């Protein structure tokens, strides 16, 4: 097809719409870092994520292996209200840039939310209803996401509560009222409905809000309605805070002991020479290479130093006779170095 025959907008037929979502994680060699629990600093478990996401979405969020996730038929039916969205040839931009490049972009604004967000909102609402939930709680800044989820919930018969950043709530009344038209409850954030909202208003009575504040209010409502009744969280009362403080104190004491032990272990390696015997061919090259397990065994047998093999780091495989420096990592940023002598067996 010649350039002049390519239309400004290209549409697929409804029959050509995808039947599955593509999970990028399945094909990523370096997987995304896990979501961390802000309280513990550790990767969040499925149970913890269940406080803010429904079960199916938690499984998808933690799935590193499934490349294609089938799109339920009801969601595909909803998509047909505004999809397929057009692939647009940017002729005017090409002319303005005076470029030989052919520029295309996907336009996702041809729906009530004005963005791609409706694609995700209907899926989240669908799985919430499938799990038996009666409604969802969320936050929104300028209102696109709140509109998307409100529309999705209206379609599926779910309640929707939206905490909207106060300045946007006041400056964008039409966006606010669209959400209410879909049956959503829209509250300016910060509000007096949550503990975090009341605290922020007490400290900053003139605040116009922020997305972080709105998220905090939505999460508080979700945790109050889900985590607390299921024993997955506790109230931040005096007794529980004291218990948490004692646990934190014990944790710090444990870390101090482990750090001292690491420093002591690293000090033991100073000036230590450990010998490993190996076989080699006529050219002096070893059959294979010296393993971390062999070094760990030699340290224990020759010097009485016990160290796990996974703490021994070789800059590169040792495949010849000679003297080498090998690093041992003990955690807390504490390293030790041992002199390794590889001789003929």
Gist of the model:
The protein is an alpha/beta fold. Helices cover 39% and strands 19% of the residues.
Which features does this protein show?
3-stranded antiparallel β-sheet, 345 residues, 12 helices, 4-stranded mixed β-sheet
Mean pLDDT comes to: 88
Strand/helix succession: EEHHEHEHEHEHEHHEHHHEEHEEEE
Decide which structural class fits the backbone.
Answer: alpha/beta
**Main sheet attributes: strand count, strand direction, barrel closure:** 4 strands, mixed
Number of strands: 14
Low-confidence stretches: none
How does this model look, in words?
The protein is α/β, with parallel strands linked by helices. It has twelve helices and 14 strands. It has helices spanning 46-49, 55-61, 73-79, 91-97, 117-130, 144-156, 166-171, 173-181, 195-203, 211-225, 238-268, 292-303; strands spanning 9-10, 20-22, 68-70, 87-89, 104-106, 135-140, 159-165, 185-189, 273-278, 285-290, 312-313, 318-320, 322-329, 335-344. The strands form five sheets. A four-stranded mixed sheet has the order 9-14-13-11. Helix 3 packs antiparallel against helix 5. The protein is extended and about 80 Å long.
């Amino acid at each position: 097809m010649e350039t002049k025959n390519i239309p400004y907008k290209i549409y697929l037929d409804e029959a050509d719409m995808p039947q599955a979502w593509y999970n990028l994680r399945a094909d990523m060699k370096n997987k995304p870092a896990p979501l961390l629990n802000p309280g513990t600093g550790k990767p969040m478990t499925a149970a913890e994520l269940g406080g803010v996401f429904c079960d199916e979405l938690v499984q998808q969020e933690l799935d590193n292996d499934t490349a294609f996730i089938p799109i339920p038929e009801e969601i595909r039916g909803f998509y047909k209200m505004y999809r397929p969205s057009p692939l647009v040839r940017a002729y005017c931009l090409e002319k303005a840039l005076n470029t030989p490049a052919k520029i295309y972009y996907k336009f996702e604004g041809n729906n009530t939310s004005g963005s791609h967000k409706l694609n995700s909102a209907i899926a989240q609402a669908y799985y919430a209803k499938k799990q038996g939930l009666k409604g969802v709680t969320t936050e929104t800044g300028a209102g696109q996401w709140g509109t998307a989820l409100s529309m999705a919930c209206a379609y599926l018969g779910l309640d929707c509560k939206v905490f909207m950043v106060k300045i946007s709530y006041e400056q964008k009344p039409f966006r606010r009222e669209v959400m209410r038209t879909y049956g959503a409850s829209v509250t300016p954030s910060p509000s007096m409905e949550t503990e975090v909202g009341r605290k922020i208003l007490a400290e900053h009575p003139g605040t116009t809000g922020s997305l972080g504040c709105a998220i905090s209010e939505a999460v508080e409502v979700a945790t109050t309605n889900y985590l607390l009744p299921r024993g997955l969280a506790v109230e931040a009362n005096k007794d529980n805070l004291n218990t948490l403080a004692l646990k934190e104190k014990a944790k710090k004491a444990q870390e101090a002991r482990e750090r001292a032990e690491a420093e002591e272990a690293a000090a033991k390696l100073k000036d230590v020479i450990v010998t490993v015997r190996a076989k080699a061919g006529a050219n002096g090259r070893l059959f294979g290479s010296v393993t971390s397990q062999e070094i760990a065994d030699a340290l224990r047998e020759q010097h009485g130093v016990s160290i796990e093999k996974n703490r021994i780091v070789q800059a590169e495989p040792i495949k010849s006779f000679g003297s080498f420096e090998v690093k041992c990592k003990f955690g807390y940023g504490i390293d030790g170095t041992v002199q390794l002598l590889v001789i003929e067996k």
